[in-house]
UniProtKB/TrEMBL annotation:
<keyword id="KW-0328">Glycosyltransferase</keyword>
<feature type="binding site">
    <location>
        <position position="284"/>
    </location>
    <ligand>
        <name>Mn(2+)</name>
    </ligand>
</feature>
<keyword id="KW-0812">Transmembrane</keyword>
<dbReference type="GO" id="GO:0016759">
    <property type="term" value="F:cellulose synthase activity"/>
</dbReference>
<dbReference type="GO" id="GO:0071555">
    <property type="term" value="P:cell wall organization"/>
</dbReference>
<dbReference type="Pfam" id="PF03552">
    <property type="entry name" value="Cellulose_synt"/>
</dbReference>
<comment type="function">
    <text>Thought to be a Golgi-localized beta-glycan synthase that polymerize the backbones of noncellulosic polysaccharides (hemicelluloses) of plant cell wall.</text>
</comment>
<comment type="similarity">
    <text>Belongs to the glycosyltransferase 2 family. Plant cellulose synthase-like E subfamily.</text>
</comment>
<keyword id="KW-0333">Golgi apparatus</keyword>
<feature type="active site">
    <location>
        <position position="141"/>
    </location>
</feature>
<dbReference type="GO" id="GO:0005886">
    <property type="term" value="C:plasma membrane"/>
</dbReference>
<feature type="binding site">
    <location>
        <position position="308"/>
    </location>
    <ligand>
        <name>Mn(2+)</name>
    </ligand>
</feature>
<feature type="binding site">
    <location>
        <position position="112"/>
    </location>
    <ligand>
        <name>UDP-alpha-D-glucose</name>
    </ligand>
</feature>
<dbReference type="GO" id="GO:0000139">
    <property type="term" value="C:Golgi membrane"/>
</dbReference>
<dbReference type="GO" id="GO:0016760">
    <property type="term" value="F:cellulose synthase (UDP-forming) activity"/>
</dbReference>
<feature type="binding site">
    <location>
        <position position="141"/>
    </location>
    <ligand>
        <name>UDP-alpha-D-glucose</name>
    </ligand>
</feature>
<dbReference type="GO" id="GO:0030244">
    <property type="term" value="P:cellulose biosynthetic process"/>
</dbReference>
Amino acid sequence: MGKEEGYLPLFETKRAKGIVLYRIFAASIFAGICLIWFYRVSHIPKAGEDGRFGWIGLLGAELWFGFYWILTQASRWSPVYRHPFKDRLSQRYESELPGVDVFVCTADPTIEPPMMVINTVLSVMAYDYPPEKLSVYLSDDGGSEITYFALLEAAKFAKHWIPYCKKYNVEPRSPAAYFVSSDDAVDADHNQAADLAGIKKLYKDMENEVEDTVKLGRISEEVRSKHKGFSQWDTYSSRRDHDTILQIVIDGRDLNATDVEGCVLPTLVYLAREKRPQYHHNFKAGAMNALIRVSSNISNGQVLLNVDCDMYSNNSQAVRDALCFLMDEAEGNEIAYVQFPQNFENVTKNDLYSNSLRVISEVEFHGLDGYGGPLYIGSGCFHRRDTLCGRKFIKGCKSEMKWEISRKREETGIHELEENSRSLASCAFEENTEWGKEMGLKYGCPVEDVITGISIQCHGWKSVYCNPTRKAFLGIATTTLSQTLVQHKRWSEGDFQILLSKYSPAWYAHGNISLGLQLGYCCYCFWASNSLATLFYSSIPSLYLLRGVSLFPQVSSPWLIPFAYVIIAKYTWSFVEFLWSGGTILGWWNDQRIWLYKRTSSYLFAFIDTILNSLGHSDSAFVITAKVSDEDVSHRYEKEVMEFGASSPMFTILATLALLNLFCFLGVVKEAIMGEGMTKLYVTMPLQILLCGVLILINLPLYQALYLRKDKGKMPSSIAFKSMAFSVFACICFKYLY
Ligand SMILES: O=c1ccn([C@@H]2O[C@H](COP(=O)(O)OP(=O)(O)O[C@H]3O[C@H](CO)[C@@H](O)[C@H](O)[C@H]3O)[C@@H](O)[C@H]2O)c(=O)[nH]1
Ligand SMILES: [Mn+2]
């Protein structure tokens, strides 16, 4: 082992400081929660008394929240921070670095524009890594000729782009992103300025070619005749029904395939796996498994990196960062994958839709890393090939991560290689095999990544969370509320399915992974079930205001203290954490709003769908997240104006809840003016009024969208009408009938 041989480790792990103080603080919150539980249980109204139903419901909700809060502590209890030493890696292993295969996934040329896709491809082709050991595969589930055409153009451009990047050591290496940032770089010397202008022009030419083809919507005959690769579309009938299309666009073994400086280029492969209507294609998991097999035949890199087509590499050193973990002599043998955080290029200052998932990336994943490693969350993850293919962990068993050249492959001609790779991507290939079960990514779950990750960890492997200051990947976050809610529905539904599946962190994982990690997983897997308690809490106490029934301690009661303490302590901490993770004050407020919206809509739908699903009623699909939006929408997004302009049943729920709280509050105000007086109400129901008031404040943008806005992002009038009817109905029923 490394240490015995006197090697310095390739990475170090630091524990967080001041953790004891945090634990004492958390324990005090827990004490407060216990007091709240005690108060609820010991003060239940008697049968027949008004408020009994609400009280018991609140007891259930508070038990749930308390339990969930405990889960969230697992990811804060013992965080660690990792620091790779890349200089040691290159000193020791530069000539033996393993092959790395990068998989870029795309699925739809309209939702995921070809220019965006090739920018991502170019960014990973330009990694600071020996090009003969780097191979890039583009998986196109859209089976689009236009995307293929764009890739051909990218291959030409790469011959100029890669040497440019290396010469001036530029970052980021996605040309589009680089040109935006280089616009204000003034320190470029004279030579570089000329080169920059040249490369920009080449990029523009390529962009024009691609955009013209996109506009045309098909490949012109002239272009088609130039590349024999297009003939593969001759038998193509639709994106759901076609043969495997596979083309080695750049063959890294070919000594003539060089850039303008004469250096070899990384291998570049286009793959659209076979699709047939009678075979389920299993979405991204299916694409990834086809890529694993095809790449094993072509380049067989020992390390695999997957990025989504919008997640370009922002840090050309990231491969080396990851290898420091996988190749460490002492601990590397236990590490199956290295996950980087997912960051986004287009998040606005106050992160309107809370897309940056700040606290998860900056706090929680470091916490999970302390217990055996983060979840596998898809894009931005480096895997060992063999573990992803199902190799079990055996203590003390080393797998060499060294570069090896396969003689057999070297001698196979490119056409033969293409031909025998094609069958690996056919639909029938997986029949009666372990693919999708024990091999590759797992099928049948909308979050193929998380379920695959937990099964790897249950096999005894560790994972590592690597979060360098210069972000490794930048993607595109959703820019409308409904997209955010739909995406979270998919995630929470997938995670909830995992909880009920045979890989459940609650039972299957027990004994296979640490308790802390089990709790950490549960935190995400229980997202969906949060909806019920949150719905109850955000509506019933307010409705009881209308009846003048108090469900919380009065001002004079000492029981108010634990409530006040838990609320203040918990929210202060959440605020501190948010700022510490790089957020803004308004960002935190937005985060609270999205927290509420997700829980009362996405999670609720996910919960219901999962239950229906397990009863065999519906099947969950993979709704691809939009990566482009029209100008109007982007403009509002940049101005941080919430987008409600879609007719989504999720919005009906949100609007109903918002109006319901407004009416309840107005009811209280009326009561205060005409009846008992403000002070009396305030003394008997302080927390209930506070809760209702905060819900109204948080919903201010929603009221605006319902009644004040005129732009296209306002709430559709059908929803305004429905939600008004539902909330008035609920208030009347509750006040007079119940
Ligand atoms: O049939 C499909 C559907 C999707 N994709 C690709 O999968 C990726 C992720 O899809 P996206 O719509 O962007 O989903 P997100 O919710 O943004 O993705 C997050 O969540 C997914 C799991 O739900 C992970 O796989 C991703 O890596 C992670 O970024 C994209 O590159 C798609 O092109 C396919 O290749 N085939
Ligand atoms: Mn995405």
